[in-house]
Design goal:
Mean pLDDT: 87
Low-confidence stretches: none
Order of helices and strands: HHHEEHEHHEHEEEEHEHEHEEH
Oligomer: single chain
CATH class of the largest domain: Alpha Beta
Largest sheet: 5 strands, mixed
Radius of gyration: 23 Å
CATH architecture of the largest domain: 3-Layer(aba) Sandwich
Helix content: 40-55%
Number of strands: 12
Strand content: 15-25%
Length: about 300
Amino acid sequence: MEIRHLKTFKTIVEIGGYTRAADYLGYAQSTVTSHIQAIEQEIRKPLFYRLGKKMLLTEAGKHLLPYAAEMIELYEKARHIPENDQEPSGNLTIGASESLTVYRLPAILHEFTSQYPQVTVTLKSSTCWQLRDELKQGKIDIAFLLDKERKEDDLQIESLVAEPMVFVFPKGHPSGETAFDDLAFSANETFLYTEHGCSYRDFFEEYLQKQGVITDHTMEFWSVEAIKQCVMCGLGVSLLPLITTRTDISEGKLQGTMVRDALFSTQMAYHKNKWLSPAMTAFLEIVRRQAKEWAQELAEV
């Protein structure tokens, strides 16, 4: 089983189809076909099946995919072994939720890229459940999750700092200065949600359900910053991490009520079988050091 065959297999899955993969890789379609046939002959099972015009993975293909990604990654790491083992180089792909991309990662990335300019960093933003899948498939090296703590058999997950949640209201809203225990949302209120798959959206919906609030007045956004601007304009209310709203609340642009028993934290995750390259090791060290500063800042709030 050759690395080039595995690369072809992985590309077909990611891009969708033999023809697109051939164009992307610069191969003739017959070459792509022969690569897949070589793998199938070795494992004695088909990798794909057709459903109409769609090319879908068989169970064998689904099982092979994470191993293929891992083997390709190890191959690339081996090709880029630095002459000096103390000098990180190569590539590092990081995934994070939008909130953490904006409010937690910039200082980390600035310190890391300043110290290790030989490392090429790629940053992807996605939901927590998508990031977990991408870690398991080997598409990203490290993920930053804003979620409740949970165990994953395949993942090493470190909780870095607790992340308080806050209900946010436009300036002058009747509930803007109400204590958490005294909050009572009206069914006429418009609720501004983050996207499906966002952990604190689930918490928000469960809270309203427990309060007996049933409403059709909802809007869904893919951007926390867009939600904040809409709340400021009086469009509705929302639930957001304190890190995303602290400045706006202190400046009087928003009003907020801290939520009790919302047990969310910033977490750093990577695959348990992941080879910790010099670049990845250096990055993890910077994250852990800066996370201690986050905890100190939170204690002062």
